[in-house]
Design brief:
The protein is α+β, with helices and mostly antiparallel strands. The protein contains one helix and nine strands, in the order αβββββββββ. It has a single domain, classed as Sandwich (Immunoglobulin-like). Strands 1, 2, 3, 4, 5, 6, 7, 8 and 9 form a nine-stranded mixed sheet that branches.
Length: 137
Amino acid sequence: MPCFRLSIALIVLLALGLCISCSGGGTIDGVKGTVTVDGSPVEAGTISLRADGASGPPAGGAINAGQFTVTSRKPLPTGSYTVTVQASKKTGRTTKDPQRGDIEELRPLELADSPQQIQLTTNNATNLALSFKSGRP
């Protein structure tokens, strides 16, 4: 009888452990994805993610041709985040930069819906698709 009770206790603990690991409480090493404005890829910009209720600096990265990668010194917890995007559009002109030479001129885009609230999960962290609308907030 004691072996039976021990077996039942182990099964219950194993099931509890599986439930906890599947409940979404995890961490993510980085976030990758795409950003569009009015359906077109953001040509250049920045993205920052701040876990709701967290203190300290947000995690962030550059946006280039609609693609971004966000890395952080510490793994990011899954959950609710505020995402802020600063987007720019190429003007087709170049300008001289004293340190980098000729660079493409960029014009900032106003985004009507930045920042946005998202749910970051282990399932969407490697292919996060964010869509914004141009215009004044």
